[in-house]
Amino acid sequence: MSEKIGNVWIFIEQEGGKIANVSLELVSKGRELANRLGVKTEAVYLGNNIENSVSTLYHYGCDTVYLAEDPRLEPFTVLPYAKILMHLIKEHRPNILLFGATAKGRELGPRVASTTLCGLTADCTDLQIDDFEDKVGQKSYKNKLMQIRPAFGGNIIATIVNTWQDPQMVTVRPGVMKLNEPDKARKGKLVRVKPELSAEDTIIKVIERVQKEKDIDLQAAPIIVAGGYGLGGKENFKLIVELAKVLGGEVGASRAAVDAGWVIHDHQVGQTGVTVRPKLYIACGISGSVQHRAGMAESQKIIAINNDPNAPIFSVAHYGIVGEVNAIIPKLIKAFKAKV
To answer: Strand, coil or helix: what is 275?
Structure first.
């Protein structure tokens, strides 16, 4: 008789009871993985006064939510969160554990993995379930988590498999997993967890929090106009800003444009920037390296403007315009303004 497969778990991030989008994306993906394995999707939700948002996790696919509420869990500090999570792992033995590749996930995930002696793959962009044949160890594994991520600067895609022990842990980049439509009729099971924390677990104190105002949110933008090095200079990048303004969209950029100092890193799309899925993505003067395409290829509609007909960006574009970008953008601006 084969050993029973554990469930798929997701660590849920929240701020003031508002669940992070990346966590809902992971619940959606976790539901897919759990269906493939024939197991349940379960969430670990830690904080204080957060029960009123638990139903959202059911709506996106969770069967069970492990809820721990305690004033000592706000704001987030890694030691109490890690202790509670490690206790739950030991008690319930999940098969897979997903974290967002965020500041919290990147701090909590490795601490839990090292303490439980499990592997962890960082910054995954895809997850699949498949069988694995270890030709070196001459052993076969059924239904393992294929942990897929770019490697060597995005020049290759690596598939990593953890054969050591469960849970198989990963952090996943925000924006790369499709967010399912919520089913508001869906219900689940709530398991209350009583935190057992010592003084050592809460020794770290947050003295002050300074929230940086975020000027842009590319991941929420329905329209993005992105500029690349093909624009030729910082002055020409102003055309990108103007076109985005006319369309009511946000400004994106390639890594080359950011490295050149034409725009700040917050606007960077791609492997070392953010992953986006807007309704419309206009790539202007962007050649389309694999690193950039990894961040925008899932956009609903892609328009590419480039003077090189063989530019890789055209391989993912729905519509392409071959020509000088600095001559084409002013015409677009004029045409769109005429329709406003």
So the answer is: coil
Domain count, the chain: 2
The pair of three-digit structure tokens given for residue 198, joined into one six-digit string:
């010592």
Q: What is the pLDDT of residues 203-240, one digit of tens each?
A: 999 999 887 766 688 988 999 999 999 999 999 999 99
Do 187 and 62 lie in one domain? The reply is yes
Task: Give the count of alpha carbons within 13 A of 323, CB side only.
Answer: 11
Q: What sign results for the dihedral spanned by CA atoms 193, 198, 204, 209?
A: positive
Q: Are 61 and 185 in contact (CB under 8 A)?
A: no
Burial 216-225, CB ≥16 within 10 A → b, else e: eebbebebbb
Residues 6 or more apart whose Cβ sits within 8 Å of residue 288: 304, 306, 311, 312, 313, 314, 315, 316
CA distance 275 to 264: 16
Q: Is residue 125 part of a domain?
A: yes
Tell which residue, 190, 207, 331, 218, has the closest CA to residue 278: 218
- The predicted-structure confidence for 32-72, as pLDDT tens digits, reads as follows 999 999 999 999 999 999 999 999 999 999 999 999 999 99
Amino acid type, 242: E
Q: Is residue 212 part of a domain?
A: no
Which domain CATH number covers 312? 3.40.50.1220
Tokens standing for 71?
């004033």
336, 293, 289, 127: CA torsion to nearest 10: 170
CA nearest neighbour of 12 among 105, 103, 110: 105
Other beta carbons within 10 angstroms of residue 227's beta carbon come to 31
Which of 149, 152, 171 has its CA nearest to residue 160?
149
φ/ψ bin of 7: left (φ > 0), alpha (ψ from -120 to 50), beta (otherwise) = beta
Distance CA 334, CA 196 (A): 64
CA gap 334, 332 in Å, rounded = 5
The vertex-76 CA angle with 73 and 79, nearest 5°, equals 80
The model's pLDDT over 113-169, given as tens digits with 9 standing for 90+, comes to: 999 999 999 999 999 999 999 887 789 999 999 999 988 766 788 999 998 889 999
Rounded to 5 degrees, what are φ and ψ at 63?
A: -90, -35
Confirm if 43 and 64 have CB atoms less than 8 A apart.
yes
